[in-house]
Amino acid sequence: MKIAVIEYRKTPPKTAQELIEAIERKGHTPVYLKAHLLDAKITTRGVEVYHGPNPVDVDAALMRNIGLYLSPDTFLKRIGVIEALASKIPVVNNPTATLVTRDKWRCLLKLHLTGLPVPETLVTENPFSAMRFTNEKKKVVYKPIIGSLGLGGTLIQDPDISFHITRSLKNLGLPSYYQEFLEKPGFDYRVFVVGDRVIGAMKRISSSWKTNIAQGASGVRVEESEAPEVFQIAIKAVKTLGLDYAGVDVAYDLNTGKHYILEVNAFPNWEGLRRATGVNPPEIIVEYLVEKTKK
Ligand SMILES: Nc1ncnc2c1ncn2[C@@H]1O[C@H](COP(=O)(O)OP(=O)(O)O)[C@@H](O)[C@H]1O
Ligand SMILES: [Mg+2]
Asked: N or C: which terminus of the chain has fewer CB atoms within 10 Å of its end residue's CB?
C-alpha cells in the first residue's frame, strides 16, 4: 500500500517522520506530500489531485500539520484540496472533521449540543461582553480560538483586563474566547483515542494551572479503572466530531465535582504520552489506517 503523510514543512518534523517509519515497518510505502504543493482539479473525468506536476497516486493518507498562521483563504484551500483527496481514498483525520476541531469554539459547541460536558464559554467581539463574563465568573481563562501547547492562554480575574484584551484584539480584527476557570486538583487528563478505543491516557501534573506537557507538566499513566468516566467522555467526543484519532483534554473541577472537556486535538503530539504510558501512537494510527483502507 502507498500511504501519504501530508505536512507543510520541507522535511518531515518528528511526528511525521515517526509515521513514515511506522508505514515502512509495516511493509508499506510512505509518500511525503507538502500541503502547499497540492493542487486539485474538477474535470470531466472526475476530481484529480496533484503534487506539483504529478498526479497523487496513493491508497491512503495521514494528514498532519498543513501550516501555521495561514490566511483564511489559504487554510481553506489546503483543507479543500485534501477534501478532494478524501473523496477518493481514506484520509486520517478526515479533513472536514479537522475544520471543527481547529476552532476551539466550534469544537466545544458541537460537543455541548450532543450532551457532552464542557465549561461555560464565551466567544465575542464585544469588550463589554468580555467584561461582563469575567465579572460574573470571577476567574476566567482567555485562549486563542486557534491555538495549542498552552501558548497564549491567560488567567484573568480583573474584568478590565478582559475589556482591554477584547478591545485590542477587535482592533486587530480578531475575536476573543473566554472560559470559566475550573479549579483542577493539580492535574488534568490527556486521553489518546484511536478509532473507538483509548490506546493510552495520562494525568498531566503541574504546579501551574496550565498542564500542557509543552509547559513543563509531567505525565503519569492512568488506567481505565481509575477514571472510567473520563475514558467514556473522550471516546464519545472523538465519535461526535467524526475523528479517527485525537488527544482529548479533560479536567475535573473541584467546585462542581464534575469532569469537563477542554478541547479535542486532531493533530496531537504523542511524545509525552509515550513517555508516560509506553504506548506508541504512530504505530497504532498506521495499523488503524491500513485496516480502514482494506475495508
Ligand atoms: N477553563 C479552564 N480552567 C482551568 N484550566 C484550564 C482551562 N482551560 C485550559 N486550562 C489549562 O490550560 C491548558 C491548555 O488549555 P487547552 O484548552 O487544552 O489549550 P491548548 O490548545 O493550548 O492545549 C489545559 O490543559 C489546562 O491545564
Ligand atoms: Mg490542550
From this structure: C
Q: Do residues 110 and 237 both lie within one domain?
A: yes
Residues 36 and 111 in one domain: no
Number of domains composing the chain: 3
Question: What confidence score (pLDDT) does residue 175 get?
Answer: 96
User: Residue 188 is part of a domain; what is its CATH number?
Assistant: 3.30.470.20
34 alpha carbon – ligand 2 mean position (Å):
26
Which residue minimizes the CA distance to atom 13 of ligand 1? 210
Q: Which atom of ligand 1 lies closest to the CA of 104? A: 17
Of 137, 164, 180, which closes a domain? 180
| 210 Cβ below 6 A of ligand 1 | yes
Q: pTM of the prediction?
A: 0.96
Q: What is the pLDDT of residues 76-127, one digit of tens each?
A: 999 999 999 999 999 999 999 999 999 999 999 999 999 999 999 999 999 9
Buried b (16+ CB within 10 A) or exposed e, 243-279: bbbbbbbbbbbeeeeebbbbbbbbbbbbebbbebbeb
